[in-house]
């Protein structure tokens, strides 16, 4: 780039001159508005293409009263859960010609307020709020359309596209039961996290008599997965399955079982949760788990926002994860 | 949000009326321009605050000829390498009141062209181009300031903020030599990747006589790390260190050595590359590695872009990774 190049930007007057029409006609032709003959419209477009003319989206924005821009606020520094949500949303919004402004609050309420002011002053058409946690959060206070993605709003009148955690746990419990496993332990993350407790409760309720002992709560870590195996086998030496609240925990469980000479899934079947490739595929054996469909969640959030912007009334949704079967439950 | 709320937006005329000044005076006070008495400026600001008035950034943008917006184009779907770069850049740009538009090309040149047109039509002040690979890429063709981050431009006259891969490999080689290791093998990713070959060559040159055999090339995976151990020990049973091109490879190396009854670092020291927490900390033992300082790289890219936008002439830079020592080289 150079200042010279920047100065040589093609203007609509250049296009009008080359096409031999007035500026008003050129503008109508390029904006696809007004009454024009097809051949005039075609001549203007050809001239625009020849000159490399680019429409100024800001002009369109001011004349339509819209900025064709939306904000995406995350508390997650665009981490593992937010990224796919963001990509899905961006895909839908960008196909609708809306650009997405990134706002990373780093879980800091002062930064969040800064971004909300900045987005408001830029007159964005709407905002998607997302985060690392599936625990509900208080809504943001703005007078424009807002959709909550992954992290739902505590206000039931808001539009939230969230994940049906409990259903994911049920799907995995069903899978273990269908394989004839009848002594299933459950190991999850911190009890204070909605994702840990809702998965554990749903699995426990679904497993019924096949549940061995109360679910164990710990960290979202491989280390906790390894430690939990020793606790579980002391409590119930004849376990035939361990369902885990995350792939990280499940990977630790598989590692520790192998070290103890237990075969997975021959002796004990293991399930994860998340379908995080780095864990689920690197695990030995690879993990049966549920895929959270976060990119689909992001797409639905983007669609809901487009609908809200168009004054529609989209409904809140909880997306069902899908079962992914690998060697940790069905050996080769 | 509702249409009613949107309609009740406070206008500068309301602020001027409350402060008892003309619209021109109110505008000067709020934009911090023109000659005004301090007390007038204060009165206008107080009125604006009382009414909850928000400046329209689009007005500022049109009057200044700038959009106060930059684009960030990535080929990486905002993956592991791009995210920290993006966060660092966003931090600097947002402190400078610039908003960042996300553009995820998914490594698709048609999508890239779409985004470049979209950013041009939005009259962004500049663009940061980044990606998953440290291999140089052809420059994008736009007449505005561009900075390349992590993935450098093939055009040496462009501003690229990249990573000094070779220096990272030298730092790790020095560390192993300083510990008295004298039979060091090198295991890296695919030879066609600049990151794999530049790290391997730099390590080999630096290790000199302490290098055991030629560097091995494979995948960026734990599985390749595990496989490589068998190859290396067959070739050189008395190895005392294995330096790896990534943390993933190094984690696999540690796992396989443990399975073979070799102590890390007692028998064999192991080093990674990347400081990717998910791998480096979960590895048993945790990995000595180099931290790529990607967030700092992003910040420097953001600063370089601000400088270019202000018509400065920032220089290209290659950032040096820093050594992170953990138990895989210095046992407890």
Automatic annotation (TrEMBL), chains A, B:
The keyword Transferase does not apply. Keywords: DNA-binding, Transcription, Transcription regulation. Pfam families: LacI, Peripla_BP_3. The lineage of its organism: Bacteria, Bacillati, Actinomycetota, Actinomycetes, Micrococcales. Residues 10-64 form the HTH lacI-type domain. InterPro entries: HTH_LacI, LacI/GalR-like_sensor, Lambda_DNA-bd_dom_sf, Peripla_BP_I. It comes from Frondihabitans sucicola. It comes from the Bacteria. SMART domains: HTH_LACI. This is LacI family transcriptional regulator. The keyword Transcription applies.
């Amino acid at each position: 780039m150079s200042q010279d190049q920047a100065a040589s930007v093609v203007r609509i007057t250049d296009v009008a001159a080359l096409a031999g029409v007035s500026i008003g006609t050129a503008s109508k032709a390029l904006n696809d508005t007004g009454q024009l003959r097809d051949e005039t419209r075609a001549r203007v477009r050809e001239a625009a293409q020849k000159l490399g003319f680019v429409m100024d989206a800001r002009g369109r924005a001011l004349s339509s009263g819209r900025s064709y821009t939306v904000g995406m606020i995350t508390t997650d520094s665009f981490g593992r859960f937010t990224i796919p949500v963001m990509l899905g949303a961006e895909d839908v919004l960008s196909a609708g010609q809306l650009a997405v402004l990134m706002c990373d609050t780093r879980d800091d309420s002062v930064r969040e307020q800064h971004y909300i002011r900045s987005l408001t002053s830029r007159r964005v058409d709407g905002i998607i709020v997302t985060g690392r946690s599936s625990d509900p959060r208080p809504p943001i206070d703005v007078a424009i359309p807002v959709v909550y993605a992954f992290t739902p709003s505590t206000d039931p009148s808001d539009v939230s596209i969230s994940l049906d955690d409990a259903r994911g746990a049920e799907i995995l419990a069903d899978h273990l039961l269908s394989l004839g496993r009848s002594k299933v332990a459950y190991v999850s993350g911190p009890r204070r996290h909605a994702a840990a407790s809702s998965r554990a409760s749903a699995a426990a309720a679904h497993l019924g008599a096949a549940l061995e002992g109360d679910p164990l709560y710990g960290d979202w870590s491989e280390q906790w997965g390894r430690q939990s195996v020793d606790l579980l086998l002391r409590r119930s030496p004849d376990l035939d399955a361990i369902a885990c609240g995350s792939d990280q925990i499940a990977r630790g469980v598989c590692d520790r079982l192998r070290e103890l000479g237990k075969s997975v899934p021959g002796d004990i079947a293991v399930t994860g949760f998340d379908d995080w490739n780095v864990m689920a595929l690197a695990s030995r054996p690879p993990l049966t788990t549920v895929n959270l469909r976060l990119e689909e969640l992001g797409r639905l959030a983007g669609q809901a926002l487009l609908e809200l912007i168009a004054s529609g009334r989209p409904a809140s949704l909880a997306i069902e994860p899908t079962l992914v079967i690998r060697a940790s439950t069905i050996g080769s």
